[in-house]
């Protein structure tokens, strides 16, 4: 393995390597490596290529192949001028993805290089466990980009004499993604993740300036959590339960009603009338992440 492939775990092992048994006995040992994160990352950056500042760059071979010297960079294309899509996956990972009837998708933004918008991962199911199968670097969160990603994965599946046509896809609630899934997988059951649902509701609680009330007022917090829990009810009970909750705040003092009414309006207009809570699922499958 080349020197610039040193991982954080390797650096940790070198940094924490005891010089002698006696020294190890006399010094306290901490399992918390967070204080060392900055210096460890700095050490690693000294041994890795500089992160590019534009999307026109060459990918070193060591990053495009697995440790078995098999292809790892499976998609590398410009979909528009200076708009690049990269996807990394081994053949084994792609096989698992294409053979899985349930696919999980999610994006992360904080870990993405600045020249890309997000790191996007696709996960498949095997032995009732969820495995990460493909890792993409995407330039934006637009419908055409997601459509391009799915089309390229379909092409890869065809080259492997497989078919990428999942029965169920679970993701967050991005509009562009939902439209791309509907276009490329018209017969697929597209559902939203319960975790992302509760995240979205809580973000709106923050937007409305209710964070302090949510944290300090048990009654307000309970009503908010009951709203989030509506998606776990049988569909025929959702509307009635929502109305019951709204009736509860109608009977509350006027200041509490004024406080919570905007949240109920948002929930009704978006989650009940636009998204539809039947699309929110809570799958109980082990994740290897």
UniProtKB/TrEMBL annotation:
Query: InterPro entries recorded for this chain?
Result: MULE_transposase_dom (IPR018289)
Domain MULE transposase, chain residue ranges per copy:
103-199
Q: Name one Pfam family in it.
A: MULE
Concerning PANTHER family, the annotation shows: MULE TRANSPOSASE DOMAIN-CONTAINING PROTEIN, PUTATIVE-RELATED
- What this protein is called in its record is MULE transposase domain-containing protein
Q: Which organism is it from?
A: Rotaria magnacalcarata
């Amino acid at each position: 393995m080349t020197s610039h492939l040193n991982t954080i775990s390797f650096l940790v092992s070198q940094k924490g390597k005891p010089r002698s048994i006696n020294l190890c006995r006399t010094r306290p040992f901490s399992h918390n490596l967070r204080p060392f994160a900055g210096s460890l990352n700095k050490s690693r950056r000294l041994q890795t290529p500089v992160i590019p500042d534009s999307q026109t760059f060459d990918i070193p071979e060591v990053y495009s192949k697995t440790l078995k010297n098999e292809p790892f960079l499976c998609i590398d294309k410009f979909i528009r001028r200076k708009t690049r899509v990269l996807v990394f996956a081994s053949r084994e990972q792609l096989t698992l993805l294409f053979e899985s009837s349930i696919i999980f998708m999610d994006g992360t933004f904080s870990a993405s290089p600045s020249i890309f918008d997000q790191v996007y991962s696709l996960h498949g199911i095997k032995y009732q466990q969820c495995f990460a199968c493909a890792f993409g670097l995407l330039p934006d969160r637009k419908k055409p980009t997601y459509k391009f990603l799915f089309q390229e994965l379909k092409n890869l599946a065809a080259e492997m004499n497989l078919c990428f046509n999942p029965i169920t896809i679970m993701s967050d609630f991005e509009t562009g993604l939902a439209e791309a899934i509907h276009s490329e997988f018209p017969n697929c059951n597209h559902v939203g993740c319960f975790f992302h649902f509760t995240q979205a509701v809580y973000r709106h609680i923050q937007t409305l300036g209710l964070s302090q009330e949510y944290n300090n007022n048990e009654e307000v917090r309970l009503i908010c959590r009951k709203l989030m829990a509506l998606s776990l009810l049988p569909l025929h009970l959702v509307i009635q339960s929502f109305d019951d909750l709204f009736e509860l705040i109608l009977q509350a003092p006027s200041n509490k009603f004024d406080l919570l009414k905007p949240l109920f309006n948002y929930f009704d207009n978006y989650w009940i009338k636009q998204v539809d809570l039947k699309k929110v699922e809570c799958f109980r499958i082990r994740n290897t992440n």
